[in-house]
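Researcher: Let's do a round of design. I'm pasting the structure tokens now; please hold your answer until I've finished.
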């Protein structure tokens, strides 16, 4: 396991000061705000090979041979002067060697995230200097409405249905089946948080609520992946966008994957049912600065924009509620967002379901081709690990499109398409500086969408234009670093920055596999086809910023191409024209994913689809999947509502099979 030696700690602090130097106005240097304890914990969440690689990187920085990597002096990093240290990092950032670019970005992302998103004694060092107020005072704490299990010794549980995962898929299945009278046990890898547990401080909440403490990525480090890992899963931390699956996508799934149920009235009713339960609506009073800019700029260009349906309840037009909406990707302390935590899981608990958090499932148990339960490890409040054995008549896996295939592979399933066809909705951020405060960390993170570019060149593929949360930690990771002072000063404008995201519906996918310890390994390379669509979206987003009145537009490439405007007219269009001709290799630009799909895809052809149309695996009876990994291909929209609808549809099939089972048992 990775550990921070004194030498490694010293070199990390030196790196932090190089990435984030002090400014004359008193903005502190990186070492004043980077928690090495949090950094070490994040690295320990990585697969064993990645931990070893990161340790080797830090050790290299302590050796004179380091000079060979940038044709500089043969000195360790800490023996270089300030200018040389920065020159080394700049050399790595632009290197032709993928491993050096990977190393640069791993170090950069960790340092800036922990500095700008960190939680020092009272207020993180950076907040006051970027105009970031941080979350409001916390609400009065209240008892947790769900009482989870807290075993203190090795335990055996029995149930009708074991549900692994509690997010958009697992939460719905648990609620539907428990309400129908099934004895349900839900196991969740992450913790149960409620109310004041959600401090809404970036580094703390990323470390508590997200898989790999918010540092999940592809093996080459080029794509940062955000995936919920807490009770409620992605529905606890997502941006509350509740999009219905486009008809053209459902028709594509039905046609190309021999899955006709996606175009039936029954599936549409599942969509309607979950939308009612989670309170999908557009009854919010106002937009934040960047959503208003997306609306205004698109409208000026004659492009249609729409309100995004959101799953919130009890929202008022008060400033306090408006501000709080911006922090719900870090947990909703006010209970406004109607994820599974406040809906289906609560229903499940009220109907007798047992819920076990802080528990990682090692494998599903299988006997004679049938699922029989699972073995898991529960971490107690005092840090002890105890063994859990579950005996179940059926098992529903809903751990998300990264962890579900990893679990099935650990359990011995061998379908040739299991783990393949990984879709990520690869996303880049197009930021801009406006002449007035944007305060984009307040208000709904996403309330406006531009769908003009979703079906490019006569295909079902293209890009959506939306807006992201813009808290300083994540913002610092997506804004390119050219030098310490440049990046630090760029973040000083955070309160005047507005950002759009280009969310690409990717045609070509990647893969999830496992290492020797069973940990998930993620491989994904953006194809030429998908990159071309993404760059059309980037161009459109930039033009919308210009039309909305931005002064500067920052394009999402490591060299930071910058557009300049005057009176809403672009002054250097050649920079935008040149964008497709830049090099777009891994770690030369920032690429992110908040949506993972299709690694255990459902379809009518068992040779190419690991799941039957009812959600059951083709290899093992009684083993079902109900999450985004079951999508035949990616949804093209934020997938929460589609996952919930598919889980609801799958649950109806499980309910209907119960009388058949009872009749068979009676005849036996």
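Researcher: That's everything. Go ahead.
Model: Designed sequence:
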């Amino acid at each position: 396991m990775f550990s921070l030696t004194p030498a490694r700690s010293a070199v990390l602090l030196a790196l932090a000061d190089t990435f984030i130097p002090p400014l004359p106005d008193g903005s502190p240097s990186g070492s004043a705000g980077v928690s090495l304890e949090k950094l070490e914990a994040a690295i320990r969440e990585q697969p064993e090979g990645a931990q070893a690689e990161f340790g080797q990187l830090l050790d290299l920085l302590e050796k004179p041979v380091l000079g060979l990597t940038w044709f500089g002096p043969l000195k360790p990093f800490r023996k270089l002067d300030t200018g040389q240290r920065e020159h080394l990092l700049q050399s790595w950032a632009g290197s032709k060697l993928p491993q050096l670019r990977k190393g640069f970005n791993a170090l950069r992302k960790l340092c800036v995230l922990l500095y700008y998103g960190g939680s020092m004694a009272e207020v993180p060092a950076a907040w006051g200097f970027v105009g970031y107020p941080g979350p409001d005072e916390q609400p009065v704490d209240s008892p947790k409405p769900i009482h989870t299990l807290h075993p203190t010794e090795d335990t055996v549980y029995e149930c009708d249905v074991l549900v692994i995962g509690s997010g958009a898929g697992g939460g719905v299945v648990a609620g539907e089946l428990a309400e129908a009278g099934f004895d349900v046990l839900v196991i969740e890898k992450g913790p149960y948080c409620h109310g004041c547990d959600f401090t809404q401080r970036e580094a703390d909440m990323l470390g508590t609520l997200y898989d790999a403490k918010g540092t999940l990525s592809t093996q080459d480090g080029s794509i940062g992946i955000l995936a919920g890992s807490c009770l409620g899963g992605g529905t606890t931390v997502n941006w509350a966008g509740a999009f219905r699956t486009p008809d053209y996508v459902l028709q594509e799934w039905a046609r190309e994957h021999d899955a006709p149920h996606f175009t039936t009235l029954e599936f549409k009713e599942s969509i309607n049912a979950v939308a009612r339960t989670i309170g999908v609506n557009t009854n919010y009073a106002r937009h934040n600065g960047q959503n208003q800019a997306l609306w205004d700029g698109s409208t000026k260009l004659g492009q249609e924009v729409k309100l995004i349906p959101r799953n919130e309840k009890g929202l008022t037009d008060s400033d306090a509620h408006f501000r709080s909406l911006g922090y719900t990707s870090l947990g909703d302390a006010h209970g406004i967002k109607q994820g599974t935590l406040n809906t289906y899981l609560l229903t499940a608990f009220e109907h007798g379901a047992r819920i076990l958090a802080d528990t990682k499932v090692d494998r599903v148990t299988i006997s004679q081709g049938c699922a029989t339960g699972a073995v898991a490890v529960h971490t107690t409040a005092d840090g002890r690990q105890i063994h859990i054995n579950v005996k179940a008549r059926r098992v529903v896996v809903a751990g998300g499109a990264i962890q579900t295939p990893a679990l099935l592979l650990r359990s011995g399933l061998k379908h040739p398409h299991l783990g393949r066809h990984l879709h990520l909705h690869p996303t880049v951020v197009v930021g801009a500086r406006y002449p007035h405060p944007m305060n984009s960390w307040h208000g709904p993170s996403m309330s406006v969408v531009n769908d003009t570019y979703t079906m490019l060149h006569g295909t079902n593929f293209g890009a959506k234009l939306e807006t992201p949360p813009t808290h300083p930690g994540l913002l610092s990771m997506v804004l390119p670093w050219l030098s310490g002072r440049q990046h630090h000063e760029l973040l000083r404008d955070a309160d005047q920055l507005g950002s759009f995201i280009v969310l690409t519906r990717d045609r070509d996918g990647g893969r999830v596999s496992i290492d020797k310890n069973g940990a998930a390994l993620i491989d994904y390379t953006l194809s030429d086809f998908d990159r071309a669509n993404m760059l059309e979206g980037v161009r459109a987003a930039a033009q919308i910023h210009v039309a909305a009145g931005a002064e500067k537009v920052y394009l999402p490439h490591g060299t930071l191409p910058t557009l300049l405007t005057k009176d809403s007219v672009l002054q250097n269009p050649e920079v935008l024209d040149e964008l497709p001709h830049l090099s777009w290799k891994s770690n030369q630009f920032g690429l992110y994913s908040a949506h993972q799909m299709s690694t255990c895809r459902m379809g009518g052809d068992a040779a190419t689809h690991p799941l039957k149309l009812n959600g059951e695996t083709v290899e093992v009876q009684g083993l079902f999947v109900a999450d985004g990994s079951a999508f035949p291909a990616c949804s093209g929209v934020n997938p929460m509502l589609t996952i919930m609808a598919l889980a609801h549809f799958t649950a109806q099939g499980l309910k209907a099979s119960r009388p058949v089972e009872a009749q068979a048992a009676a005849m036996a």
